């Protein structure tokens, strides 16, 4: 059973999110419970304590909520499903594809999809550079996956013409920003996450520069 203090902490943490309700709060609580169980056997994530998972996984993931554009989203290098699973739970009208090269982590995500009967989430064991889908995505999101130039290289082929790459970072990656190809523009958004005030968080939005028609 989900411990009551975990339920209360999640409910308190998400209370200011317009989409949040008791149903969502309960699902996020159960997600932590299941992750803790699987983590003991498969070592899916370095964050092991449920209290730390609330901020380090759930709220960190949801900090990208306002930056998701369009209906079709792909989370590359998703690991155990972060940020994709919390975002998908919070945004049931959007479709999320979560990909990773680790079979055990994808197995956990598929377990959650089945347990929650999530109709808006799919998971696939594949690396981004090897994935060439029939349908491109409005948003590509990645959390602490790689450098910004490498992220563009890995995911550019997955993105619609006017789509956005959402890169979730810790410290402001100044050297990476200066290394971005001239064909791309970026926006930097400092993020504050309750319970993680001692750690820097930034979200970088990457878009292809639009060519002006003469």
Proportion of strand residues: 15-25%
Q: Strand pairing plus helix content: what structural class?
A: alpha/beta
Number of helices: 7
Tertiary shape: globular
Radius of gyration: 17 Å
Helix content: 25-40%
- Looking at the overall shape, the CATH architecture is 3-Layer(aba) Sandwich
β-strand number: 7
Question: Can you tell me about this structure?
Answer:
By secondary structure, the protein is of the alpha/beta class. It has one domain (4-208): Rossmann fold, CATH 3.40.50. The chain has seven helices and seven strands, in the order αααβαβαββαβαββ. The chain has a seven-stranded mixed β-sheet with strand order 3-2-1-4-5-7-6, sandwiched between helices. The model has no long low-confidence stretch (mean pLDDT 93).
Give me the secondary-structure topology:
Elements: H1 4-13, H2 22-42, H3 50-62, E1 72-76, H4 84-90, E2 95-100, H5 103-116, E3 121-125, E4 137-143, H6 148-155, E5 159-169, H7 174-178, E6 184-190, E7 202-208
Parallel strand pairs: 1-2, 1-4, 2-3, 4-5
Antiparallel strand pairs: 5-7, 6-7
């Amino acid at each position: 059973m989900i411990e009551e203090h975990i339920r209360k902490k999640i409910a308190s943490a998400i209370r200011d999110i317009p989409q949040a309700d008791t149903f969502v709060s309960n699902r996020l609580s159960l997600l932590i419970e299941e992750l803790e169980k699987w983590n003991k056997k498969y070592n899916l994530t370095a964050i092991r304590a449920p209290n730390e998972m609330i901020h380090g996984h759930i709220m960190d993931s949801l900090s990208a909520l306002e930056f998701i554009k369009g209906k079709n989203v792909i989370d590359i290098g998703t690991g155990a499903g972060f940020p994709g699973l919390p975002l998908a739970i919070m945004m049931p009208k959007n479709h999320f594809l979560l990909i990773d090269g680790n079979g055990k982590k994808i197995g956990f995500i598929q377990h959650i999809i089945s347990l929650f009967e999530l109709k808006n989430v799919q998971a696939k064991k594949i690396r981004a550079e090897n994935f060439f889908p029939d349908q491109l995505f409005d948003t590509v999101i990645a959390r602490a996956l790689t450098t910004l130039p490498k992220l563009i290289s890995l995911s550019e082929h997955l993105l619609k013409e006017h789509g956005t790459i959402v890169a979730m970072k810790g410290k402001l990656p100044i050297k990476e920003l200066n290394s971005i190809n001239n064909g791309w523009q970026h926006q930097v958004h400092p993020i504050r996450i309750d319970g993680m005030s001692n750690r820097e968080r930034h979200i970088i939005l990457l878009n292809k520069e639009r060519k002006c028609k003469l």
